[in-house]
Amino acid sequence: MLNATSPAVPAVHDGLHVPAELAASLSARQAWISPKFLYDPLGSKLFEAICELPEYYPTRTEAGIFDLHGVEIAQTVGTGATLIDLGAGNCAKAASLFPLLQPRQYVPIDISAEFLHDAVERLHQRFRHIDMRPLGMDFSSRLDLPDSVRAERRLFFYPGSSIGNFTPDEARDFLQRVHAQCGRDGGLLIGIDLAKDHAVLDAAYDDALGVTAAFNLNVLRHVNRLLDADFDIRQWRHRGFYNPAQGRVEMHLEAQTVQHVTWRGGSRRFAAGEWIHTENSYKYRQSDAVGLLGQAGFAATRVWTDPKQWFAVVYARA
Ligand code: AVJ
Q1: Which sign, positive or negative, has the C-alpha torsion 17, 18, 21, 24?
Q2: Which ligand 1 atom lies nearest to the CA of residue 35?
Q3: Distance, CA 56 to ligand 1 centroid (Å)?
Q4: Which terms are listed as keywords in the entry (predicted)?
Q5: ipTM of this predicted complex?
């Protein structure tokens, strides 16, 4: 059943630390905005639209791997688990696996709390027998699970290569925290985007329709609301490209003319052509991805990929 006793999905952005953290990153010599702020209600919808773009291969490639190997994946991870979905969004990826994985409890977690709550309400109509416990929270720095989350057979699900938003060092620390929450009989099913032709990556993060541009620019609307800031969105331009030296795609926002931006407690001048860094999306070699999971403490891994080896789904047993 849907969690009825505790407050549905707690608000995430009412912590005092959010404005302070954001203001500090905007004031840094190289200004940046954490990619977690891309996900307000509109940002989550724009990301859904990105997943439909012909250029954006990760979602469809990952789904293809589950279509082809889903039965074997389910045999490997087992059924009846507590499925903890990190960055669940619209919950569609996990829901498509419910028939195979038959989770006993489903715990979708997302920073976009409002969007998540709407998705879970709809999902619960379709799967009434699954105990659903949505959590609207930022799991990137701390991973505290309430007592309502079953401790037995925890299967963490981290699809879509969201792990790519962390630097490799941060990713290892994060995976360590996931490992610590797995328990002895648990594991992690993770989707990781693999290194590939640069032109494919450039197109995927700077699509012809401009949906990724809208997704990136929307972060300024979100910041305007969170910080009472006055970013003029029309004066900024999306940049998204692969950086081969760093092995990652980067998104930035470039000021088209000189900008004076003020927010609660601060202000800044941005020169024409100055950038705000909004996202990294690291691409891994399969061997490096497996190595990272080992460093995080996982005992064994199994890997499934697509025919082009563009994306990997990995099960890491605790
Ligand atoms: C949701 C973090 C996996 O990095 O590909 C899509 C976000 N950014 N287009 C990614 C994103 C630009 C996405 N992740």
Answers
A1: negative
A2: 2
A3: 9
A4: Methyltransferase, Transferase
A5: 0.99
